[in-house]
Amino acid sequence: MPKPGIAVGRSVPRVDADAKLRGVAKYIDDLRLPGCLYGVTVRSTIAFGTIRKVELDPCWPWKDAVVAGPKDIPGENCVAVIEADQPLLAPGRVMHPMEPLLLVAHPDRNRVWESSKHVQVSYDERDPVLTVSESLARKQLLRGTDNVFKQYLIEKGDVATAFAGAAHIVEGEYRTPHQEHAYIEPNGMAAWVEADGAIVVVGSMQCPYYVQKALKRIFPGRDIRVIQAVTGGAFGGKEDYPSMLAGHAALLALKSRKPVKMLYDRSEDMASTTKRHPSVVRHRTALSKEGRLLAQDIDVVFDGGAYLTLSPVVLSRGTLHATGPYECPNVRVRSRAVATNSPPNGAFRGFGAPQTLFAAEAHWEKIAAETGLDPLKLRRLNLVREGSVLATGQVLKESVSAAQALERVVARSSYEKTRRTHAVCNRKPGKVWKGIGLALVHHGPGFTGSGEVMLASRAAVALERDGRIAVLSATTEMGQGEATVLAQITAETLGLDLSLVRVETPDTAKVPNSGPTVASRTTMIIGGILMKAALKLKERVVQELGSFPTTTKGLKEAGRKLASKGPLTFEEEYRKPPEVVWDEAAYKGDAYGVYGYEAVTVDLSVDRTTYEVKLRAVHTSTDVGRAIHPELVRGQIAGGTVQALGWALTENAVFQRGRMSNSQFTNYVIPTFSDAPPIDLDIIENPYSRGPYGAKGIGELPHNAPAPAVVAAVRQATGLLIGDLPVLPEKICHGLLARRKAS
Amino acid sequence: MKREASRAISFVVNGAERTYKGPAFKRLIDVLREDFGLTGTKEGCGEGECGACTVLLDGKPAASCLVPVSQVHGRKVETVESLARGESLNPLQRSFLEEAAAQCGICTPGILLTAWSWVKAGGSADPEAVRKHLSGNLCRCTGYQSIVDAVVKTVKKRRAA
């Protein structure tokens, strides 16, 4: 482990902790807006069809209410993300349940809900497309000529020939469901119109500049200012949806000429906003006699929901991670994201990779079952090492930690010994069966392929009059700790005490466009840009004064001397490392500059009567490059792990005719203090030469391995390979009954 | 009916006597946030599942989204704002700070109060017992580990002192 610096490598108090612990941090619901109206959304009750008529109940007092519909939109009726196919308010055609149709605002927070119930909508309903197979069969055409939003193909070597010469051929199909982000703060946004006509929106969000971009098309010709309020969790769920909500709040503000607040309640948030894409992934694998990979033929289908939104990029990441962290000479990955009549699925921690890595890792269990080979040995034989070539032709040049992560987690969890003792215990009578399972994964931090080049993110550091350094970036704090980490990187680069660095609120009027706060890119990419900006500032001060001061007094003095000679803000833009080469058209090359690696074991028991799964222990070994703030890194790994365990075991989003029917914490069950296991967190630091102080992104990696490790453990406990998440007791029960019937 | 609605409801909030006049069935969380400006108490679900709105009612954790204000007449309510003494955080808050146990922070006030009731009542330092006591509060960021560590640390420090 490298030695801590003045700020980096130290678990300093979070810069946002004090306000949060005192309860004085201002989330959007806490913001006082005198004279504001409350806005609500009237939503479709059908999955697919056309609106016949919208009527306001003539018996209801509408006098204090403001109603806005598609005709009130001054610019384009769209929420622009990658494309602009999603309307802000459905103009005539309804594509999914809970689609926004109309907006109502009222000064009374309770009265507004009642008002919205007095909007009567009648429809001409059509038979909806509810599954990916219905979509691929073109039951109805929802998009283009084939319902496919996007497809990719990766080809390496000669798959057909490799299958012809294989000792083992193993096929499997794996399915993952919707997952709800379940941030504890629901989505919320406020908007008002300034005297000069500018629109200001404040709210819970990940990407202020995404919101601004979307609003510019809805309200052309107006200045748009977007400010992030303290945000109560996001996990990808506040990446694109806030643009919709901001558009709604701003439209009501424009029409009413009053500030408008829109706050979703839990049920509306769960039923209307984005989810993790459900997936169906098929593997066909050729292996040599001893278990070496000869060919992987993988087919991936993601359910995109009704509009394109972020599906192409979610699918891209899923496609690129589909092989798992293994080297195989012949690979074919075909992937498609298709349209269905359900709310659009979107970004969620891992962004497509957890789905395809679940399939890749669970498939080792299938291979083990059919070949009699050991899952650990199979991984040891095939995992990537320095110099390995991935399916896109990318050569892994540095910081390749798959083997190290695997061996460390195997040792720390006594995996092999535990597996043997569990096997013995399972043969004897008892109340439970026990199982331990393993998974090994990778994750590419930062935008995929040319993404970072296209984003061209900017960030700056400024020497301020009060002798402090300001960090200026649009990167948002949503709990992950970015404000603290970016302050640490800046302080370290300048050789300053952390107290001399402050982080500016993400506000498009104050900070440059640093791109979205997503894709595990903040520490590695924005931290890297800030490091360069800080070096520029340092160089300038040293040039003028001969040395860089480290006290407030000295910095004030430096500021005074430099002020007359030019600006004191030093901005830098992302520059691609020259060795990273990606060909978007051919879909070949360095999809990511580097990868993080993680190996996980899950030890669990299954009740022999109720089939309830109880987590006994979880071990993680995770390569993060460099832990800028070890405690925050542990927080990301523990949080991501438990979120993934929920996806694996209890989070069962039930969709009926395209609508989530269990949109409450009462019946959509996320892990509690009692469900979550104690986790042994093992941090590996193999530095990345292009990351600030060696850091690689860490936010999403922890979501990839836990679910397949659960499936592997349940297989040891019960003998059943349940490749369809979540692993509910009912599924174990049905599996055991089916097996009994068959024997 | 009219006389009923205008009857004052009096209770102690964070040590100070407060009087509320208005609909008797207004939720305690709304009275605290809207009438008294105590926005530290958060709403996460509005149906008593997530625990973000937890306050201490006569020292015991209660979901303030499920309590009509009329039920607290004559009783004692403590919110997150009562924990720190001026500049200095209370011992539990300090442990949360040291263990980075608050991430997004929206569940933090409720968890602090549930945990504080455990610490004050002389609850044990056994992590399993702490988890059980806190299992009515949801957190989606931390995976719970850092919070359990912070509570255990506070209990141990208190015992040592």
Summarize, please.
The complex is a heterodimer of chains A (743) and B (161). Chain A has 743 residues and is of the alpha+beta class.
Question: How would you characterize this protein structure?
Answer:
The complex is a heterodimer of chains A (743) and B (161). By secondary structure, chain A is of the alpha+beta class. Chain A folds into three domains: 17-25 and 457-573, Aldehyde Oxidoreductase, domain 4, CATH 3.30.365; 33-126 and 184-272, Alpha-Beta Complex (Aldehyde Oxidoreductase, domain 3), CATH 3.90.1170; 279-447 and 589-742, Aldehyde oxidase/xanthine dehydrogenase, molybdopterin binding domain (Aldehyde Oxidoreductase, domain 4), CATH 3.30.365. Chain A has 19 helices and 27 strands. Chain A is globular, with a radius of gyration of 26 Å. With 161 residues, chain B is an alpha+beta fold. Chain B folds into two domains: 2-82, Beta-grasp domain (Ubiquitin-like (UB roll), Roll), CATH 3.10.20; 91-160, Orthogonal Bundle (DNA polymerase, domain 1). Helix content of chain B is 35%, strand content 13%. Chain B is built from six helices and five strands; from the N terminus they run H-E-E-H-E-E-E-H-H-H-H. In chain B, helix 3 packs across helix 6 (145-160). Chain B is globular and about 50 Å long. Chains A and B meet through helix 1 and helix 17 of A and helix 3, helix 4, helix 5 and helix 6 of B.
Instruction: Output the CATH class name of the largest domain in chain A.
Output: Alpha Beta
Largest sheet of chain A: 7 strands, mixed
CATH topology of the largest domain in chain B: Ubiquitin-like (UB roll)
Regions with little confidence, pLDDT below 50 for 5+ residues of chain B: none
Output the number of helix runs of chain B: 6
Instruction: Count every beta strand of chain A, where a strand is a DSSP E run of 2 or more residues.
Output: 27
Radius of gyration of chain B: 16 Å
The neighbouring-strand order within the major sheet of chain A is 3-5-1-12-9-10-11
- Our measurement of the CA-to-CA distance between the termini of chain A, rounded to an integer number of angstroms, reads 54 Å
Radius of gyration of chain A: 26 Å
CATH-defined architecture of the largest domain in chain B: Roll
- Global mean pLDDT of chain A: 97
**What's the main sheet of chain B like?**
5 strands, mixed
The low-confidence parts of chain A are: none
Mean pLDDT of chain B: 96
